[in-house]
Amino acid sequence: MAHLLGAERLHLEFPTRTVFDEITLGIDEGDRIGVVGRNGDGKSTLLKLLAGRLEPDGGRVTHRRGIRIGMLDQADAVDPGHTVAEAVVGGIEEHVWAGDAKVRDVIGGLLADVPWQAQVASLSGGQRRRVALAALLIGDWDVVFLDEPTNHLDVEGIAWLAQHLKARWAADAGALVVVTHDRWFLDEVCTATWEVHDGIVEPFEGGYAAYVLQRVERDRMAAASEAKRQNLMRKELAWLRRGAPARTSKPKFRIEAANQLIEDEPPARNPIELNRLAVSRLGKDVVDLLDVSVVYPVTDAAPDAPDEKTVLHDLEWRIAPGERTGILGVNGAGKSTLLGLVTGAVEPTTGRVKRGKTVKIATLSQELAELAEWSEQRVSAVIAEQRTSYTIGSGSKSVELTPGQLLERLGFTNAQLSTPVKNLSGGQKRRLQLLLILLAEPNVLILDEPTNDLDTDMLAAIEDLLDSWPGTLLVVSHDRYLIERVTDRQFAILDGHLRDLPRGVEQYLELRRQDSGGRGASAERTSGGRVASAEGARVSRPEPAGASGLDTPPSGATRPPITAAPALGGAERRAAEKELSSIDRRLEKLQAQIAEQHERLARHDQSDYVGLGKLGDELAGLEASVAELETRWLEVSEALEG
User: From which residue to which does any coiled coil extend (predicted)?
Assistant: First the structure.
């Protein structure tokens, strides 16, 4: 591999601390490097040093002659006086850039919903960020530095960016260095990871999952002072090992020692126990949305355009105690409106919202307005006004923590307890906001883009805390890893309907591609296109994989017309309702058995291939039974509705 650039004995000091102390590293062709570390440890500073935007106090950065370096940093400013077209393609003639497939792909992937001739000054902060990213990506660079490129991108945009970066260069050409808290993106794009901590840069092989595996091994051999971080990463590793095998199949380093660490690790989250505890705290009724529609008036519509917009249409959703649900959808699809219906901030145009008597809802919003009243107070004083203790878990496994212990668990040091709230960093304020919400002991928690301003370590700590939280959890986030990590079920808002996603985020992306013909469709077309089926309008039971609506007929073929089923008589209807109830009970038992089987697989000796194969066959049999029952559930439901 040809060498592109290197750093030799870099030293950098700020007035209050040493950022880097004698670090030496290099970047070769073919490198795809993810940079992780705690907020404030110097990740963005490292990129600026390597890109030549910041001079070190000692040492030097060397570049290969003629190398072309492109960088997107968090403070990139696009000239507000330019149009989007001028900012992205400059003075290049339209017939020139329009004939370049790479430029068309970038514009379609990032700027589909941004008016091409609009002034940059009229755009939102997120749109300006995407304009800056698009302007960078259409260029030809040998090395690309990206600082938090996934900010302001939705799930589709992040998936597109990952695919673009993987296809941008040949395997042994170009180099990428990216700072991001999006752990799925790190796993998808990067083949190496640099951890910035304590004034050094420590290299690891592989993406985020591989980094976690090696870090657990490193922490296992570290001093006793590292025990707390080690325990946290053990649990994170246990989650990764229960996920897709491909995540940990690429690393070439020894993993036996790390496997021993999680051999007896308990399940990261026991859904049955948490659901039982949630029922005792909540009662059987949480929030039911019954045939709800929300229509907003359009005040600035064109003369021939409709004067109102239907955001949600005939939506039915019954939220269960202990349910952990992720909500997906493009910007403007209605996610905030849906959350507003749950909290009571939005009233339905038609239908009704039914809330349980014991429901206590709290929202971790994107804004930090909840902290405004305490801005002048020290953190310790704010905590002293709240509860004196907080209990997590249940029964013999319950643990009582003081607010100070919770603060420590969320990464606060003793010195920070005397810091005024207004002087905290964005990530620290975010953690304090979550702590204050948990101390109020809600039983329904809504997380609206909770990953803002948080690094990967703190995200893992918050996920660990939520594992033992026994309430109903609703999460809206573009962070794919977080959605898959803390929720057990995902829904998508498509064409104003709530669509169940048995296969999770991947199914959502397939549906979006099917609807829009790719990432290049405009936002208005994507949010208004027909995706959800009639069955998707009402959410009660996950659909089987074969009924997801993704299968397409062969070329030239047409689907048979759908005819209404004859109405059932009284006796037949009672029999069908009885069968439906029986299927529900059987599905609950099978889901519990599947969860137990996953736990057995996670605990089983990974070198015992025969035993693993037997457990895998048993799991496949259980999942096949679930698919058959779900198919029958749909058939009986359709007969009842007919």
Answer: 573-632
H or E element in which residue 415 lies: none
Decide the pairing of beta strands 444-448 and 361-364: parallel
Distance CA 364, CA 434 (A): 7
CATH of the domain at 9: 3.40.50.300
Q: 422: which 2 tokens?
A: 């207004």
Distance CA 364, CA 69 (A): 39
Task: Give the residue numbers spanning the domain of 94.
Answer: 78-136
Partnered with residue 27 across adjacent β-strands are: 5
User: What is the spatial distance between Cα 148 and Cα 142, in angstroms, rounded to a whole number?
Assistant: 19
The pLDDT > 70 percentage for the chain reads 77
Q: What is the 3-state secondary structure (H, E, C) of 170-228?
A: CCCCCEEEEECCCHHHHHHHCCEEEEEECCEEEEEECCHHHHHHHHHHHHHCCCHHHHH
Q: Three-state DSSP class for 199?
A: coil
Task: State which of 136, 153, 168 marks the end of a domain.
Answer: 136
Is 507 a member of any domain?
yes
Q: What is the pLDDT of residues 253-287, one digit of tens each?
A: 445 555 655 555 555 665 655 555 555 566 678 89
Last residue of a domain, one of 244, 261, 278: 261
According to DSSP, the residues that pair with 489 across neighbouring strands are 325
Dist. CA 523–CA 526, nearest whole Å: 5
pTM for the model stands at 0.66
Same domain, 523 and 610: no
Provide the domain count of the chain: 4
Least confident of 256-265, 356-365, 603-612: 256-265
Q: What pLDDT is stored for residue 272 in this prediction?
A: 53
411 domain residue, yes or no? no
**385 vs 570: CA distance, rounded Å:** 60
